[in-house]
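Subject: design request, 614 residues
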C-alpha cells in the first residue's frame, strides 16, 4: 500500500492535470497556457504545504582548532569554534579537553572543519560520523622521518634511515655518544638518506643525527637511541638429510655463521657423512633451536620421528623442510603431520632474481676489492644471473612468506603450530648462488628463513615504539603478571594490563621525564628487566608534526566515507508554502474569471447569442 506522501502526490497531481487540461480546452491561446501552468504550480505548492521538505537538524559547522592554528582565526556565520589543549589562545573559542567532549556538547553540528596541524593520537580514536574538512599544513623544514636502528649485537653494523624536508643538497651526519663524527651522507633531491656505524659495548646509547643545509649551517640535532645486545648464544641447529650439494653448502654456511651445528647425512648402508651428532629424540629436540630436514629424510624417520618433531614444534622448536624432489601425496601428508598444509609441489618454475645492485658502481662499492672466494671478474654487473628453479606449491591464508623472488613468487614461508613454526623451502638448488659468486644473497635467504622459525629466546623483550618522547602516552606489549615501570629518579609505577588486549599483554605508560626507564616483570626465575630510553619532549617535533597531519587526513577521509551515519532530518515549516499556495490560488481564480469572461464574449460574437436564436 502506498504511503501518505505517495497517495497525496497522486491525488493532487491528478487533480492539477485535470484542471490544466480543462483550462487548455476552454481557451486555446497563451492565456490558457498560463492558467494551466498556474494550476500545476498550485498543486505543487499544496503538496509542499502538506509535506514540507526535509531539513537537517542543526546546520552548524564545528571548527576545531589544533596546534599551529593561526592566532586570528574567528568563527564565521553558521560555525562554532572550539580549541583543543594544543591550540593557541583564540578569541571567542570554547576550550575543550578533547574532540569527544566537543562532539558531546554540540551534538547538533553537521560538519567538522579542522584547522592547524591536526588531531593528536588522543582524538583519533573518537568517531565523528560527520563529513570532515581538513587540509594538512606543509611539512616543516628539517627531519620529517626517522627509521631508527634495530637492536644490534655488539660488534655488528647498524643502519638508520630518514627523510628531510627542504634540505636537498645538504648533509646528514651521525655523531656517536662522545660527539665524534662516524658517518656522513649527502641529502638527495627526495630528501632521503641512510647512515650507519658499528655497535660497541652492550647497553643503551644515544647517537645524534645532525642535519645541515646547503650553507653548512646546523638545522637540527636529533637524538637516536641504540640498543646494543650482548653476544647471543650460538643458534643450535640440527641438519638432517642426504648428502647433496645443497646440504654441503648449508653445512658450510652454518659453520661459518658460528652456529652450534650437529648434522646427520645418511649415505645409505648405515654410513653417516655428517658426523653422527644429530638425533631425533625428545631430549635432542628440546635442546635444539632449528631442525633442517629434507623431504626424503622426513619420510625416512617414520611416523614416530614425525610425531616427536610435531610435539617439539608445539613446544617452540622451528623446523625447516627442504624440498629436494617433486612432492607426492605421501610427501604432502608428511608435511601435514608437522602442521604444514600445502598442495601441489610436483611442477617447477624458474626463480626470477633481482639485480645485485642498481648499477655497476654501486655493486663494486658494496663488494669491495674482492677476495679469493669472489674475485673481481666473477659475476660482474653485466653477467647474467644464475638459473634457479622452485617447486610450485599452493598454500593457504595462514602461510606467511619469508623469501620471495623479484616477481613476488614465494620461495619459502612458514605456518604456526603451537608455539613453534614449520617452514617450507621450495628451492632445491639454492647452492648455485654460491657457485655464481652470489654468496651474500644465499646467506641472506637462509638467514631470513632460520630467523623466522628459530625457537624464541627466553630473554624478556617487550614490544614498544622505538622513538619515545617525554610526555607522550605509549603502549607496551608482551607483558604478564604484575609488571612495574621504574623512572630515571627510581620511583616505581605499577602497570595495569588491559584485559581487552588478550594474549598480547599490553599496558599503557606515560613517561613524563627524559632518561632511562626500566621495565620489571616478576617471573618464576626471578624478576626480568628491560631498559629503554625516553628522549626530550621536542626531540621529534617535526616528525610528529608530519605524522599528525597524515593521520588526521586518513581519519577525516574515514569519517566522510559512505559508512558514516546519515545526519538526522526533520520536516521544515509548512506555513511559507501555505501562504504561497493561497496567493497563487487567488491569482489563478482572478485570472481565470477575467480571461474566461473574455473568452465567452468572443464566442458570442462569433456564433451569436443563444438567447436571441431561441
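Subject: RE: design request

Done. Sequence follows.
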Amino acid at each position: 500500500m502506498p504511503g501518505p506522501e505517495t497517495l497525496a502526490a497522486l491525488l493532487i497531481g491528478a487533480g492539477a492535470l485535470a484542471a490544466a487540461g480543462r483550462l487548455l480546452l476552454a481557451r486555446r491561446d497563451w492565456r490558457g497556457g498560463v492558467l494551466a501552468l498556474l494550476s500545476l504550480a498550485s498543486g505543487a505548492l499544496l503538496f509542499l504545504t502538506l509535506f514540507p521538505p526535509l531539513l537537517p537538524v542543526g546546520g552548524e559547522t564545528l571548527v576545531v582548532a589544533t596546534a599551529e592554528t593561526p592566532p586570528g582565526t574567528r568563527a564565521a556565520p553558521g560555525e562554532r569554534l572550539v580549541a583543543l589543549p594544543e591550540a593557541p589562545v583564540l578569541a571567542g573559542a570554547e576550550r575543550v579537553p578533547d574532540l569527544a567532549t566537543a562532539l558531546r556538547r554540540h551534538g547538533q553540528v553537521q560538519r567538522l572543519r579542522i584547522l592547524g596541524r591536526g588531531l593528536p593520537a588522543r582524538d583519533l580514536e573518537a568517531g565523528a560520523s560527520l563529513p570532515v574538512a581538513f587540509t594538512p599544513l606543509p611539512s616543516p623544514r628539517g627531519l620529517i622521518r626517522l627509521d631508527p636502528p634495530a637492536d644490534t649485537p655488539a660488534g655488528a653494523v647498524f643502519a638508520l634511515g630518514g627523510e628531510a624536508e627542504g634540505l636537498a643538497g645538504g648533509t646528514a651526519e651521525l655523531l656517536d655518544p662522545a660527539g665524534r663524527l662516524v658517518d656522513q651522507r649527502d641529502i638527495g633531491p627526495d630528501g632521503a638518506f641512510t647512515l650507519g656505524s658499528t655497535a660497541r659495548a652492550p647497553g643503551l646509547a644515544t647517537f645524534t643525527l645532525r642535519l645541515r643545509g646547503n650553507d653548512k649551517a646546523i638545522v637540527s640535532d636529533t637524538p637516536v637511541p641504540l640498543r646494543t645486545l650482548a653476544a647471543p648464544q650460538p643458534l643450535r641447529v640440527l641438519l638432517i638429510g642426504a648428502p647433496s650439494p645443497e646440504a654441503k653448502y648449508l653445512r658450510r654456511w652454518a659453520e661459518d655463521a658460528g652456529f652450534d651445528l650437529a648434522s646427520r647425512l645418511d649415505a645409505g648402508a648405515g654410513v653417516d657423512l655428517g658426523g653422527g651428532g644429530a638425533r631425533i629424540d625428545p631430549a635432542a629436540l628440546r635442546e635444539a633451536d632449528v631442525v633442517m630436514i629434507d623431504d626424503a629424510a622426513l619420510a625416512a624417520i617414520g611416523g614416530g620421528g614425525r610425531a616427536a618433531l610435531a610435539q617439539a614444534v608445539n613446544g617452540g622448536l622451528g623446523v625447516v623442510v627442504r624440498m629436494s624432489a617433486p612432492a607426492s601425496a605421501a610427501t604432502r601428508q608428511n608435511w601435514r603431520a608437522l602442521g604444514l598444509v600445502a598442495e601441489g609441489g610436483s611442477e617447477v618454475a624458474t626463480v626470477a632474481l633481482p639485480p645485485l645492485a642498481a648499477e655497476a658502481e654501486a655493486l663494486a662499492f658494496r663488494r669491495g676489492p674482492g677476495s679469493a672466494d669472489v674475485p673481481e671478474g666473477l659475476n660482474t654487473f653485466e653477467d647474467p644471473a644464475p638459473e634457479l628453479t622452485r617447486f610450485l606449491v599452493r598454500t593457504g591464508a595462514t602461510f606467511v612468506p619469508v623469501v620471495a623472488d623479484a616477481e613476488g613468487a614465494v620461495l619459502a614461508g612458514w605456518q604456526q603450530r603451537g608455539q613453534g613454526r614449520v617452514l617450507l623451502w621450495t628451492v632445491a638448488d639454492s647452492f648455485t648462488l654460491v657457485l655464481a659468486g652470489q654468496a651474500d644473497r644465499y646467506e641472506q635467504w637462509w638467514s631470513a628463513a632460520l630467523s623466522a622459525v628459530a625457537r624464541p629466546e627466553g630473554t624478556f623483550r617487550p614490544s614498544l615504539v622505538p622513538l619515545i618522547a617525554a610526555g607522550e602516552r605509549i603502549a607496551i606489549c608482551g607483558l604478564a603478571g604484575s609488571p612495574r615501570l621504574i623512572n630515571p629518579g627510581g620511583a616505581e609505577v605499577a602497570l595495569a594490563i588491559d584485559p581487552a588486549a588478550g594474549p598480547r599483554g599490553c599496558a599503557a605508560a606515560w613517561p613524563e621525564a627524559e632518561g632511562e626507564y626500566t621495565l620489571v616483570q616478576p617471573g618464576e626465575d626471578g624478576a626480568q628487566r628491560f631498559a629503554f630510553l625516553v628522549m626530550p619532549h621536542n626531540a621529534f617535533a617535526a616528525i610528529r608534526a608530519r605524522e599528525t597531519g597524515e593521520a588526521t587526513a586518513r581519519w577525516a577521509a574515514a569519517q566522510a566515507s559512505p559508512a558514516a551515519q546519515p545526519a538526522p532530518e526533520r520536516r521544515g515549516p509548512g506555513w511559507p508554502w501555505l501562504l504561497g499556495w493561497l496567493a497563487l490560488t487567488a491569482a489563478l481564480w482572478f485570472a481565470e474569471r477575467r480571461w474566461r469572461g473574455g473568452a465567452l464574449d468572443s464566442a458570442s460574437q462569433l456564433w451569436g447569442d443563444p438567447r436571441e436564436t431561441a
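Confidence is low (pLDDT under 50) at residues 599-614.
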